[in-house]
Amino acid sequence: MSTDIVINDQSLQEMDPFILLSLINTKLRNESESLAGLCENYNVDQARLVEKLGDFGYEYIGEINQFRLP
Prior knowledge:
2 strands, mainly alpha, 70 residues
């Protein structure tokens, strides 16, 4: 049985924001050198992802390759 979470535009819109934050920051740390690379790898709309996490107060900080509260 697989426990992998599917990452796509639909799942990002439906996912709990705190789970999404954890998932994306983990993927950024372990798999991608940038947000653009992660979004390209998973075929996810970068603007939508930034907007979704931004709605909950998080912003992407490129220097540390993470979403954080400002």
